[in-house]
Write a structure and sequence with these properties.
The chain is α+β, with helices and mostly antiparallel strands. The chain has helices spanning 4-12, 32-42, 57-67, 86-94, 131-136, 149-153, 167-178, 198-201, 206-220, 224-227, 229-247, 253-260, 268-277, 281-292; strands at residues 21-26, 47-52, 72-74, 81-82, 100-111, 117-119, 127-129, 146-148, 180-193. α9 packs antiparallel against α11, α11 (229-247) runs antiparallel to α12 and α12 (253-260) runs antiparallel to α13.
């Protein structure tokens, strides 16, 4: 509700004109539905509004895909904003090559606590991403993606309904395995960082969902570990680090050391968490809180 009006305003003011907006109220009890219907009245040819009862993020997005009529599909969370040229620039790239399944872009980050805005990757360049690069460097914003609908229809299913945090990561990996993904350096979306975001609420699910993602990859492709050892290493690290990050402030230092030891040579963060977990519990908790209090 808090950001919905600004979000919808950014959608209806696109320079690209041949599109539809599907807005789904997933059981909200605030004034979100009222805001949606107000926009529908003013943009009746552009906006469709649906209401469901708490189906969850994956089922809700799957519902939106099923209701869509366009050749391309894009998503936006209600607390994000689009640049007015977002659709125009991404559709232009998509239409330049029929083998492109996804176009994504750089983005701005707006920290609601500090009031600061920055560009996520100020040194970004336009490029076509290889499969391993896409999976191993994934830190993109869902709201930047434009997806060819036939790339979605080429899959056995859309979003995995078991997932609430890594649902887009798992889906986009499956698309990228078969289709090209093109990254644009322009920041075409603004991503809000605030204390009520799902990224923070669902941290305790992250490790299990990374495990599901890795398991899905192994099931779909024979000898996946041998073909893509760097991807296995990356997702295994993300799984174990996600758990370590959740349990370190609880004083479970021994478990943190067990999780981070196999990743000692992977990156500095793994080393830091292992070393902090070697300290007495009250010290490691203090260091953790000092570091993360500056971050939402």
């Amino acid at each position: 509700e808090k950001y919905l009006d600004e979000c919808l305003s950014s959608l209806v003011n696109q320079t690209f004109k041949d599109y539809e907006i599907i807005v789904i109220n997933d059981g909200s009890k605030d004034s979100s539905l009222e805001i949606m219907n107000d926009y529908k009245k003013n943009y009746s040819k552009l906006i469709k509004v649906f209401s469901n009862e708490n189906q969850g993020i994956s089922k809700t997005r799957n519902f939106g895909i099923e209701k869509s009529n366009g050749e391309y599909i894009t998503f936006i969370d209600s607390d994000d904003l689009w640049d007015e040229t977002k659709l125009e620039k991404e559709v232009k790239v998509m239409e330049s090559d029929a083998s492109i399944g996804m176009v994504l872009s750089n983005y701005k980050r707006f920290n609601m606590l500090s009031g600061e805005t920055d560009i996520y990757n100020p040194n970004a360049e336009d490029k076509t991403m290889e499969f391993s690069e896409f999976v191993c460097t994934y830190d993109f914003c869902l709201s930047t993606f434009l997806i060819r609908k036939s790339a979605l229809e080429d899959l056995e299913h859309y979003f995995d309904n078991r997932l609430k945090y890594e649902e887009e990561y798992e889906l986009f990996i499956r698309i990228e395995r078969k289709w090209k993904a093109v990254y644009l350096k322009d920041a075409l979306t603004t991503y809000r960082i605030h204390t009520n975001m799902n990224t923070l609420k669902l941290q305790d699910r992250m490790a299990a969902e990374y495990e599901i993602t890795l398991d899905n990859l192994r099931k779909r492709e024979e000898d996946f570990d041998e073909k893509f050892p760097e991807i296995v290493k990356r997702i295994s690290y993300l799984r174990d680090f996600s758990e370590a990050k959740c349990i370190l402030p609880k004083g479970e230092n021994k478990r943190v050391r067990q999780l981070m030891k196999p990743h000692w040579n992977y990156n500095v963060r793994a080393k830091c968490f292992y070393l902090v977990a070697c300290m007495p519990g009250f010290v490691s908790k203090k260091i953790y809180s000092m570091f993360y209090k500056r971050r939402i």
